[in-house]
Specification:
mainly alpha, elongated
Length: 174
């Protein structure tokens, strides 16, 4: 024989069903999706992919590294497009890598890696760095591919109204 609850704390099956329904409804109700933000994010991702394809065709390792960095910047713009609605006041910095760490903490570690590579890109563009080890370029390519995959997953989650409603499964597709 089970312990009886006092009448004011007893739950009925109907109350349990209502609670389950509220919980399920909260998960299925999508967050509002702004088609302008989706368009901006998709455009930046498309540009990133074009630049990535171009980088793969470049023979010069230094130029390939620079282009791969620019691919990551385009992808960061796509991530920011779905996290920073038009008209929002930006934080104190215009640095994309820092902003990503604030608005998309799940991307902060990879954004920090790109931030650490910013001086390399600047030195390439100013002519200070003229050679890069091919293994470094290969590592950069893998890092960029991982970042692109994560950002694409984020944009898909936003399009489906799931960004912010629940944690997206990074790398999973719908």
């Amino acid at each position: 024989r089970g312990k009886r609850l006092p009448p004011d704390t007893a739950h009925t099956h109907e109350e349990d069903d209502m609670a389950r329904h509220r919980s399920a409804t909260a998960l299925t109700h999508a967050a509002p999706v702004d088609p302008v933000m989706v368009g901006r994010a998709r455009d930046l991702l498309e540009r990133a992919h074009v630049l990535f394809d171009n980088a793969d065709g470049v023979d010069d390792d230094v130029e390939r590294f620079r282009q791969l960095y620019l691919v990551a910047l385009r992808a960061s713009g796509a991530a920011l497009a779905v996290h920073e609605p038009v008209g929002t006041v930006r934080r104190r910095t215009s640095n994309a890598w820092t902003r990503i760490g604030v608005v998309a903490p799940e991307l902060a570690p990879i954004a920090a890696r790109f931030a650490a590579l910013s001086p390399v890109r600047m030195k390439i563009e100013s002519g200070i760095i003229r050679t890069i080890d091919p293994d470094s370029v290969a590592g950069m390519r893998l890092l960029v591919l991982d970042f692109l995959r994560r950002v694409e997953t984020m944009v898909i989650a936003y399009e489906q109204g799931k960004l912010g409603a629940e944690a997206p499964q990074i790398g999973a597709t719908a």
